[in-house]
Design goal:
The chain is 65% helix and 15% strand. It is of the alpha+beta class and 441 residues long. It folds into two domains: 334 residues, Up-down Bundle (Outer membrane efflux proteins (OEP)); 79 residues, Outer membrane efflux proteins (OEP) (Single Sheet), CATH 2.20.200. It is elongated. The N terminus is likely disordered.
Length: 441
C-alpha cells in the first residue's frame, strides 16, 4: 500500500512540474523582458565582456613577465678531448639548473600604447552595437506583440463575419421556405457563408503563430501560454518628436544612430592600427634580469650546497633593418582598410537618411489614413444594418446585403490594420533616428 502511495506522490509531482505557465504581458512588460531575456542581446553582452577583458589585457602588456625554469640533465655520454696524447673527459654525469628571469620591454615603438587605444575604441564600438541590438530586439518584440493584438482582432472579425453570414443564411432560408426568396438568393447566401469559413481558419492560424513568434523572441517556452493585456488602440510613442520636420529627423539620425557611432569608433581603431604598423619600424628595447642556480655532479643525490648562484642584468636592442618590404606593405594594407571603413560609413549615412525619409512619409500617411479608415468602417457598418432592415421589408435584394457584408468586413480589417500601422510606423521612425530607447529610458 505504501508503494502505491509513494508512486502516486511521484506522479503528482511530475504532473505539477509539467504544468504550463500563464504569462500576462503588457507592452511595458514586453520591452523589459526583451531587454532582459532575449538570447541575441545576451550574446552581445558576452561579446562586450570579452572586449572588456581585451582592454585589461592591453594594459597588462606594460607589466614585466617573470618566468621560472627548472632543468635536470643526465648526460649519457660525456664529451672527450685529446690533448698532448692524453684523453680527457669533460663535464659531469648530472647537471641541475633553477632560474628566474624577469623581462620588461622598455620601448616597443609605441605599439603597446596604440594597442590600448585600439582596444578602447573597439570597446566603445561594441557598446554602440549593443545599444543598436537592444533597439532592434525591442522593435521586433513590440511588432510581434502588436501583431498578436491585431491577429486577435482579425480573428474576432473573421468570426463575426461567419456569424453574420450564418444569420443572413438563416433569414434567407426562412424567406425561401415561405416563397419570398428565390433559389438564387439562397445559393448566394450559402456561398457567402462558406467563403467566410476559410478566412476564419486562416485568421486563427495566424493568431496562433503570432503568439509563438513572440514566445521565441522573449525566450518563453513554446508550451507556455501568453495573455496580452493591451487592446488595439493608438499610442503616441513619438511624444516630443511628433512635430519634428524631416530634415531634423535626418540630423538626429546622424547624431544618434548606433551603427554610425560604432563605425566611427571602428575607424578610430583602424587609424590606431596604422600607428601600430608604423611602430614596427622602430627598434625594441628590452631589459631582463636573471637569477640562476646551477649544480654539476657525478651523483644524482644533489644537495643545496652543490649549487652555485649567478645573477645577470641584460639590456637588449632589436631593430629589424630589412625584411623584404613586408612592414611597408602591412602599412599600406592598414591604410586601405581605414579608407574602406570610411566608405562603409558614407554608404551607411546615405542608407539611414533614406530609411528616415521612408519612415517619415509612411507615418504621415498612416496618420492621414487612420481617420478616413475609421469613418469608412462606421459608414459600412451602418450600410449593413440598413441593408438587413430593408431586405426584411422586401425593399432591397440579397446582393445588396452581400455587398454590404463584404464592404463592412473589408473596411473593419483595413481600420484595424490602420491602427497597427500607426503604432508600428512610430516605432520604425524612432528606431531610424536612434531614439527608440526613449520608450524604456
Amino acid at each position: 500500500m505504501f508503494r502505491y502511495f509513494l508512486l502516486l506522490i511521484l506522479l503528482s509531482s511530475t504532473l505539477i512540474g509539467q504544468q504550463k505557465k500563464i504569462i500576462y504581458l503588457s507592452w511595458d512588460d514586453v520591452v523589459d523582458k526583451s531587454l532582459k531575456d532575449n538570447i541575441s542581446i545576451q550574446s552581445k553582452l558576452l561579446e562586450n565582456e570579452i572586449q572588456d577583458l581585451e582592454v585589461w589585457q592591453s594594459y597588462l602588456n606594460f607589466l614585466p613577465s617573470i618566468t621560472y625554469q627548472g632543468v635536470g640533465v643526465h648526460n649519457l655520454e660525456l664529451p672527450s678531448i685529446v690533448f698532448m696524447g692524453q684523453k680527457f673527459t669533460m663535464g659531469t654525469n648530472y647537471s641541475y639548473q633553477h632560474a628566474i628571469t624577469a623581462t620588461l620591454p622598455l620601448f616597443t615603438g609605441g605599439s603597446r600604447y596604440f594597442n590600448i587605444k585600439v582596444q578602447n575604441y573597439l570597446q566603445k564600438s561594441l557598446s554602440e552595437e549593443l545599444k543598436g541590438k537592444e533597439e532592434e530586439v525591442v522593435f521586433q518584440t513590440l511588432q510581434a506583440y502588436y501583431g498578436i493584438i491585431l491577429a486577435n482582432e482579425l480573428s474576432t472579425t473573421a468570426l463575426d463575419a461567419v456569424e453574420v453570414a450564418e444569420s443572413n443564411l438563416k433569414q434567407v432560408q426562412l424567406f425561401y421556405d415561405v416563397g419570398t426568396a428565390t433559389q438564387l438568393d439562397l445559393q448566394r447566401a450559402l456561398a457567402q457563408y462558406y467563403s467566410t469559413i476559410p478566412q476564419l481558419e486562416s485568421a486563427e492560424s495566424n493568431r496562433i503563430l503570432a503568439y509563438q513568434n513572440l514566445k521565441m523572441l522573449l525566450d518563453i517556452p513554446l508550451e507556455d501560454s501568453v495573455v496580452v493585456i493591451d487592446t488595439l488602440s493608438t499610442k503616441d510613442f513619438l511624444d516630443s518628436f511628433k512635430q519634428t520636420e524631416l530634415n531634423e529627423y535626418k540630423n538626429l539620425s546622424l547624431q544618434h544612430r548606433s551603427e554610425l557611432k560604432s563605425l566611427g569608433y571602428q575607424i578610430d581603431a583602424s587609424n590606431q592600427g596604422e600607428n601600430m604598423v608604423l611602430s614596427s619600424f622602430f627598434p625594441t628595447i628590452v631589459l631582463s634580469g636573471n637569477l640562476q642556480y646551477q649544480a654539476f655532479t657525478d651523483e644524482n643525490n644533489v644537495q643545496w650546497k652543490d649549487y652555485s648562484r649567478s645573477k645577470a642584468i641584460t639590456l637588449s636592442i632589436s631593430w629589424p633593418l630589412f625584411e623584404g618590404g613586408k612592414r611597408y606593405i602591412n602599412y599600406q594594407i592598414a591604410q586601405i582598410r581605414t579608407e574602406q571603413m570610411k566608405l562603409i560609413q558614407k554608404q551607411s549615412q546615405t542608407q539611414i537618411s533614406l530609411e528616415v525619409e521612408q519612415n517619415f512619409y509612411r507615418f504621415n500617411e498612416s496618420v492621414k489614413n487612420l481617420q478616413s479608415l475609421e469613418e469608412a468602417m462606421k459608414q459600412s457598418k451602418e450600410s449593413l444594418r440598413l441593408s438587413n432592415l430593408l431586405y426584411g421589408e422586401g425593399m432591397s435584394t440579397q446582393i445588396d446585403i452581400l455587398n454590404a457584408q463584404l464592404l463592412y468586413n473589408s473596411s473593419r480589417i483595413q481600420y484595424l490594420q490602420g491602427i497597427y500601422n500607426y503604432n508600428i510606423n512610430q516605432l520604425k521612425l524612432l528606431k531610424s533616428i536612434g531614439k527608440l530607447n526613449i520608450i524604456w529610458n
